[in-house]
Design brief:
Layout lengths: L1 E5 L6 E7 L7 E6 L4 E8 L3 E9 L5 H5 L7 E5 L3 E2 L18 E3 L2 E2 L3 E2 L8 H8 L2 E4 L3 H11 L3 E5 L5 H8 L11 H4 L5 E3 L6 E7 L4 H8 L3 E7 L4 H5 L5 E4 L10 H13 L3 E4 L1 H9 L4 E17 L5 E12 L1 H6 L3 E7 L5 E6 L4 E4 L14 H11 L6
Parallel strand pairs: 5-6, 6-8, 7-9, 8-11, 14-15, 14-16, 16-17, 17-22
Antiparallel strand pairs: 1-2, 2-10, 3-4, 3-12, 4-11, 5-12, 13-15, 18-19, 18-20, 20-21, 21-22
Length: 391
Amino acid sequence: MAHLEFVPRGERFHICTFMSRTFTPSPAVLLLADGTVFYGKSVGKIGTTAGEICFNTSMTGYQEIFTDPSYYGQIIIMTNVHTGNYGAHHSEVESDTVKISGLITKRYTAHAHSRQTATETLQEYFERNGLVGISDVDTRALTLHVRTRGAMNCIISSETTDIATLREKLAQVPDMNGLDLAISVTTPKPYAYGNDSNPLKVAVLDCGVKESILKCLTERGVYARVFPANTTFEEMEKFEPHGYFISNGPGDPASMTYAIQAVRKILDSGKPVFGICLGHQLLALACGVSTRKMHHGHRGANHPVKNLLTGLCEITSQNHGFEVSLEELQKSDTVELTHINLNDGTVEGIRIKGRKAFSVQYHPESSPGPHDSRYLFDRFVEYMQGGLAAR
């Protein structure tokens, strides 16, 4: 361990740098489906990986991003220049393993980290989780390219730089449209979360739920039971919940006919319903409003959203590549628009008329990100307590 002391303006504090074992990167290549090629250096495990390319504009919270199940099947460009500089910590995860398919970054800190409480370097963390990535890429140029051309599949390899070979492998990667990925990240069997003495019981339909969401629920006196994504309404109802939560997750919501059917029955039960991200899209689909793939999606912790019910704005954390159709929503007799994105006018929130059911496209638990929208968890709890009437 190297220990440095820095004294600014008469105040003393310490910067501790912990050295890991030597990591020597290998040459790596990134190939996009449109034929664009970037060269760089290997990150994490030596290997080959493929998925849909997208970018995240968050300045911090990379470990939470990497473990978010909503990123399953996707390769992430981190637009923040530095990745790995504060290491990894076992408590900063949103699921049990890394869920991204690959990482693209500009500068990668493999040998050391500056945070004393970190439990390991990011390189060690990636190797344990089998993550393949690439660094020393012009991520600004790459992000601009994706914004212009749209989301597409890509492949990263530190095993071979032969473009012809990689092009053949990339051609076999399925398109995100029509792909049900939630079934790959959901819990294999139901489990309890929180204190069973809590007064409110919530059934969570797990399409890829984040740990922070469950924490936000239990902090408000909720005892949750988390069910696999393909669980029927009848099976969840045996838990006798006071309300239902429909979680975030990856893939195309329209492909999840089993979940759409369950959400319809949940709505018919009259119990309070709260959906986030994929759960928001499933709620819309259950009410006859369609979803569609976005050009390049929203991913980051600085997206401005307007609450149309209060007139107030929120800075939100987002991670999605599909959206609810605004045109169909405006024609609906049962679904009302409640939140809208101030950057591009896309749907960010809805509520069901005459029901205690609502959802948002963004992530109010915000891990990482601002906590402007955590009031939505309070609203859900108030609905279950009977403190709010259906509107």
